[in-house]
Amino acid sequence: SRVDPPLPLNVWRARARLLELRAEDLAFTPDEAVAFVQAGAGPDVPAATALVLRERTEGWAVGLRLATVALRDHANREEFLDGFRQYGHYHIAAYLVDEVLNRLPPEQHIFLLHTSILDRMHRDLCAAVLATDDTASCQRGLEFMERANLFLVALDTRHEWYRYHHQFQAMLRQRLHGRLPEREIAALHRRAADWYASHDYIDDALYHYQAAGEIAAALGLVVRLLPALATVEQ
Fold this sequence. Notes:
Layout: H1 9-14, H2 23-26, H3 30-41, H4 47-57, H5 61-73, H6 77-87, H7 90-99, H8 106-115, H9 123-129, H10 135-147, E1 152-154, E2 162-164, H11 166-179, H12 182-198, H13 202-211, H14 215-233
Antiparallel strand pairs: 1-2
């Protein structure tokens, strides 16, 4: 099932009466990925190439299969691999659009697109990017995606920080740039940078200021930190 069924799962889980197979359990191991890609695209495919496909698809079976087909049909494998490292592949993007994105309610669709600029997500950060004070709705949005198995990966045991599956995020970003003008995307980055800066996530703040084209803001942040850096060095 793509989503958790409406059954008393927590009760069964507490009573040790539930056997769960999640996405991470079904993901291809490195050895399985190499064997699968070589079987589908040819035994001459280097193991290192197969492992790049596994890394970018995170072992997801459907994504790995689509990537293998694309690799098999591409005349220049090195060129394909370079592009796949950066952008994924349109077969995978098309699958994700058809099977996932087009079935979501509009508000969830917007949430996904706008937060795709983030490499990691927290409800407060998402609220800042969306320019809303309703952090509870952002938390509900994250929990909805987690329950629905929408290519969301928890980064901590408290389930406060998340990230998107790499290929899913690549597809979302591609659609974001096709839907919004660059000035609006820059505004998303600027709001993310401001939030990161206010919470002392300096590297993340500088990255998003740069993505927003806000070089002066990035320099201002560095200048503001200079006294603290000098104190540390002493």
